[in-house]
Amino acid sequence: MYKVFIFSVCLSVCLSFVTCDLDKEEGEDCEWDGIKGKCVHPNVCLTTLDKRRAKPPVCSQKGDETIICCTDCELVNDTSNFIISASSGVFWKDGRKSRDACLQYLKDLPHKCRQEGYYAGLSRKLDEEKKCHRFSLWAVGGAPGPGARVPSENPYEAVVGFGQGRDMIYWMSAGSIIHEKFVLTAAHRLNASSSIPDRPLTYVALGVKNMDRSTWEIHNVTRIHVHPDYDGDQSRYNDIALLELETPISFNRDVLPACLPDPAEEFDTSKAKFTSWLRNDSDPIIKGPFDSPHVVELREFTAEECNANMENVDPLQSYIYRIYLPNKVNGDSQVCYGPENCMYIMGGPIAVTTQYSRCMNTVIGISLFDGHKCAPTVFTKVQHFVSWIESIVWP
C-alpha cells in the first residue's frame, strides 16, 4: 500500500517536473544530470523560466509545495519579478510602483512587439568552469503573420468629453491611459474642480481612430482627482489631473496603458511624439474638434529657450502666457516641446518610447496650451508628479 501511494504521488508531480526524490528537503544538496545543485523553492530558480528545456527534478513534495533541484550558479529572490523584453533585455520589478506596473504591462498585454511576432525567453547554458548553469536571452520574430492587422500607433490615448448624456457628448480634450481605472489629463480642461455640484457628466472614449463611434469604448468618469497645488484661476502650474473610471478598461491591441517616467532613471527625451487631431467642423452630430489623428515628432527646448520664444509669438499668445505663467516656465515641473516645422499643435499628451521596450510608450508631458504654429509650447512634466500619481493609482 505504501509503495502504491508513493508511486501515485510521484506520477502526479512528474507531470510537471522530471523525476521524484522524496527523501530530500529544502536546502539539501542534490544532483541533476551530473551537475550538483541545491533543493529550493521553484520561485528562486531561473531554470524554471527556461520553457524550451526539461524541467528540473523534484526533491520533495508536501501538499501543494514542491521543492526542486536547482543547478543555477546564482539563486534569485522571486522569479515572478523577472520580466523579459524582446527588444531591451531583462528587468526586475523592485517595488517602485509605477515602474513595476509598466513592467507587468510589458509582460502581460498585447503590445506592438507581441503583435509583430516578437518573442523572447531565457536559455540555460553550463558554466564549464564552475559546473553550474547561467542564462542568456533569446529573441525571435519581428514579422507579423499573414493578414495581421496594423496595431494602433498610440493605443494609450484617450479623448475626454462632457455632456448630460451619451447622446450628446462634447469631446474637448485628450488624456493618457495609465491604469485600468485611471486616465491622466490636464486639470484646466476639467473646470478645475470635482466639487462643482452641477458640473456636466464626464466621459472618456478609448480606441478612437476616427469619428466612427461604433468602434469607441466609452467609459463614465466616477471621480476626478486634481493636483492639490493647482489653481486654475491664477496660473497653470501643477496643471495635472486623474480621471477615475467607473468600470475597468478591458485592454486589447487598440487600447493599452502607457508607462510613467521613472524619477530615478534617465532616458532620452530630446525627441517626443505627439498625436495631433485635425479639426472637423462639418459633422453636425459629433460636437468637438476631432477628425483623425496623425503623429508629429517634436523636439525639446530648454526652459530658457522656451521663455525667450514666448516674447516672439503673436500678441494674444504672449498675453495668454503672461496670464497663466506669471513666473514663466518652471524647469522642474514643466517642459517645452515644439515641431521641427511650423504647424499648429492642439493640446494633448506627448510621449517617448519607454526604456523597457521599443514597442511601449512613456507619457512625459501634458499640454497646457494649444501651441503657436512656429513656437514651442509648454507641457506639465509628468516625471515631477509621479509620487502624487502613485499615491492615488497605486496607494
From TrEMBL:
SUPFAM superfamilies: Trypsin-like serine proteases (SSF50494). It comes from the Eukaryota. Residues 1-16 form the signal peptide. GO terms for biological process: proteolysis. Pfam families: Trypsin. Residues 139-394 form the Peptidase S1 domain. InterPro entries: Peptidase_S1_PA, Peptidase_S1_PA_chymotrypsin, Peptidase_S1A, Ser/Thr_Proteases_Immune/Dev, Trypsin_dom. The keyword Signal applies. GO terms for molecular function: serine-type endopeptidase activity. Keywords: Disulfide bond, Signal. The keyword Signal applies. Belongs to the peptidase S1 family. CLIP subfamily. This is Peptidase S1 domain-containing protein.
